[in-house]
Amino acid sequence: MLGELTPEEIDTVLRSEAIGRIGCYAFGRPYVVPITYAFDGVAVYGHSREGLKLRMMRSHPVVCFEVDCFESVSSWRSVIALGTFSELEASEAEIAMELLRRRLAPLVPSATSVPDGRLHSSGLPWSVFRILLGERTGRFERPA
User: Fold this and answer.
1) Fewer CB atoms inside 10 A, N or C side of the chain?
2) Which domains does the chain have, with CATH numbers?
């Protein structure tokens, strides 16, 4: 059975997952990239080293965010949201980093999943950002 997720179910999917995908467009081309993230009910928070993703989002801050929960080919949930990217500085970045650490700490860490706290704004490699989510849609499939 196919169906649409309710707003509450959409929030549940966004809160339950830790890996999503940002879709952005700039410089005449689209780009989709996975990120680890934390969701606070309003926005998605992430971090990144300098690279194409940040350059594109800075150039065109309207982005798409997608997350899915896949159990099998006949049992899944997917959420797509439109949002606006912004980089965070100082205290906002520290709050976002703590949210990310709390969300990602229970998971197996990797070299890029949990940053060491060094922020780009201080001249070091990490940039912390927020995607303020707007319109959200969600779909699901489950066995009938």
Assistant:
1) C
2) 2-141 (2.30.110.10)
